[in-house]
Automatic annotation (TrEMBL):
UniProt keyword annotations, A-Z: Glycosidase, Hydrolase, Signal
Pfam families listed in its UniProt record: Alpha_L_fucos
The protein's name in its UniProt record: alpha-L-fucosidase
The keyword Signal appears for this protein: yes
Signal peptide: 1-23
Length: 154
């Protein structure tokens, strides 16, 4: 994909997040559930959601890996994996330094996604454990700029 086409693709994806309605919603489920689906989403057959972050380092379970390891009802598979592969004093936060994103090439990703026929892409930029994929003054030393890749991945 040439750079002009790539720029158009990115612009279309970004513009799709701009609100085109003056409808006001209230902070309750009835109101929020009344929002119509955007046509670009509802009519698209393929979209890509990227869940990627610190939890990708151990490569077991899902983005809920920490909960599967240390939560109220730990997964025996995840606990056994951690016991076998990491020292006893290892913490979830220790994975952040190993999250290097060495194969992250957004231009290549756009080419692959466009070739797949995807009509939209959603990168989860902050997961429930608070690690942000961008530099954040509110997430000091728990973001992709301060630890791990040392770059803005968003």
């Amino acid at each position: 994909m040439n750079s002009f086409t790539r720029a158009i693709f990115v612009a279309v994806v970004c513009c799709s997040f701009v609100p085109f309605t003056k409808e006001q919603y209230t902070p309750d489920w009835t109101s929020l559930d009344s929002r119509p689906l955007p046509a670009w989403y509802d009519e698209s057959k393929i979209g890509i959601f990227i869940h990627w972050g610190v939890f990708s380092v151990p490569s077991i379970s899902s983005e809920w890996m920490w909960w599967s390891w240390k939560g109220n009802d730990p997964s025996s598979e995840v606990v056994a994996f951690m016991n076998k592969n990491y020292p006893p004093d290892w913490t979830y936060a220790d994975f952040a330094a190993q999250f290097h994103a060495e194969f992250y090439n957004p231009n290549e990703w756009v080419d692959i996604f466009a070739a797949s026929g995807a009509k939209y892409i959603v990168l989860t930029s902050k997961h429930h454990e608070g690690f942000t994929m961008w530099p954040s003054k509110y997430s000091f030393n728990w973001n992709a700029m301060d630890v791990g890749p040392k770059r803005d991945l968003l």
